[in-house]
């Protein structure tokens, strides 16, 4: 099993920034495709972004493209989500996800973190 622990969520005003971190346990972190999902109250879980094993390929949901940036540090077993120009509609619980594949699936990745709350006020 692989364990993922998110951190960095909090309350921020619209236009502000947050940086989320996801620390992963397990062997050979670089073997995993990773990404982020989010779930707002009363809504289904939504794909946000994914990053390839090497970190050279990324794919963003249109709703966050140009505002969010995913990166990974395989030496530290950590993936990051830099969130800029935040909007109230970004409010959600953000979940880190991991899958032992070249590309993280946009639904049902194998492993999930516990989630971290991001709240953006008007």
Keywords:
122 residues; four-stranded antiparallel sheet
Produce the secondary structure layout.
Layout: E1 4-7, E2 10-13, E3 18-24, E4 33-39, E5 46-51, E6 58-60, E7 68-73, E8 78-83, E9 92-99, E10 111-112, E11 116-121
Parallel strand pairs: 2-11
Antiparallel strand pairs: 1-3, 3-8, 4-5, 4-9, 5-6, 7-8, 9-10, 9-11
Give an overview in words.
With 122 residues, the protein is an all-beta fold. The protein contains no helices and eleven strands. Strands 2, 4, 5, 6, 9, 10 and 11 form a seven-stranded mixed sheet that branches. Strands 1-3-8-7 form a four-stranded antiparallel sheet, with no helix packed on it. The protein is globular. The mean pLDDT is 93.
**What percent of residues are in strands?**
over 45%
Low-confidence stretches: none
How are helices and strands ordered from N to C?
Answer: EEEEEEEEEEE
Query: What sort of overall outline do the alpha carbons produce when their principal axes are compared?
Result: globular
Helix content: under 10%
Largest sheet: 7 strands, mixed
How many beta-strand runs? Answer: 11
Class of secondary structure makeup: mainly beta
Mean pLDDT: 93
> What is the count of DSSP helices, taking H or I runs of 4+ residues?
0
End-to-end CA span: 40 Å
Radius of gyration: 13 Å
């Amino acid at each position: 099993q692989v364990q993922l622990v998110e951190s960095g969520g909090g309350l921020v005003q619209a236009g502000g920034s947050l940086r989320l971190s996801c620390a992963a346990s397990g062997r050979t972190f670089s073997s995993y495709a990773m990404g982020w999902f989010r779930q707002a109250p009363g809504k289904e879980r939504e794909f946000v972004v994914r990053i390839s094993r090497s970190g050279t390929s990324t794919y963003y949901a249109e709703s966050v493209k140009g505002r969010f940036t995913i990166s990974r540090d395989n030496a530290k077993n950590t993936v990051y989500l830099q969130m800029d120009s935040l909007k109230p509609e970004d409010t959600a619980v953000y979940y880190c996800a991991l899958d032992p594949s070249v590309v993280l699936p946009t639904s049902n990745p194998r492993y999930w973190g516990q989630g971290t709350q991001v709240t953006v006020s008007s």
